[in-house]
Design goal:
Length: 214
């Protein structure tokens, strides 16, 4: 499911969005897509604990008589297996984590990626990171200082909300919504003839095979 988010159609939509934004503005766009922004191990523990408790109840109260060794060992085995299965069903981690915590993890990971990808290193401090985290179904826009100062108050939050609203529709929908930000970004930081492309345009993703950065 996560790999489908960034299929060929989605990659094309993001590529067109980046080209459109950078063609009409001085803004440098970097898109990063992550499978998850944290491990959320508490979900494994919760599910494993509940499964172990249920397994213990079965061994104690079922009509079938279990050996003492089974009563002692089997519930723990069930609990461990249930905890491991959660890694195959990441949606459960999202369901068992408050939305505020999901958002916090995504924003912290986005800020780290902003530095790792060198979005802060453009000449005009005009970079913006579009950070998408699939497990959390969250997105963060992290602008550099120059772009943040040029934008109207509240414009970035509104743009972020518009992109988040498209997440469940897939990567292509998010890419199309990103392209709609071109006029706003162009007005904030107009394109000039001496603008150069300072940051790689390839999507930085860990969903499947990572794109080779140019």
């Amino acid at each position: 499911m996560s790999a489908q988010f960034l299929d060929d159609e989605a990659r094309g939509a993001f590529a067109r969005a980046v080209t459109q934004i950078e063609g009409c503005s001085a803004v440098e766009v970097v898109v990063a897509v992550r499978r998850a922004s944290a491990t959320y191990r508490h979900a494994n523990v919760v599910v494993g604990g509940l499964a172990a408790f249920a397994g213990l109840a079965v061994t104690l109260f079922a009509e079938h008589s279990f050996a003492l060794s089974s009563i002692l060992v089997d519930p723990f085995v069930v609990g461990v297996l249930a905890g491991l299965v959660i890694e195959k069903v990441p949606q459960v981690k999202r369901w068992l984590t408050p939305r505020s915590i999901l958002k916090d993890h995504v924003r912290r990971a986005a800020r780290a990626t902003f530095v790792e990808r060198g979005v802060h290193a453009t000449t005009g401090r005009s970079g913006v990171l579009v950070y998408i985290s699939w497990l959390e179904q969250e997105l963060a826009l992290i602008p550099d200082l120059g772009l943040a100062a040029a934008l109207d108050e509240g414009a970035l939050a509104k743009a972020e909300a518009a992109l988040i609203a498209q997440l469940r529709s897939g990567g292509a929908a998010v890419g199309s919504a990103l392209a709609q930000l071109a006029p706003m970004l162009g007005a904030a930081m107009p394109h000039s003839d001496d603008d150069v492309n300072e940051l790689p345009d390839a999507i930085d993703s860990d969903l499947g095979v990572r794109e080779r950065r140019r």
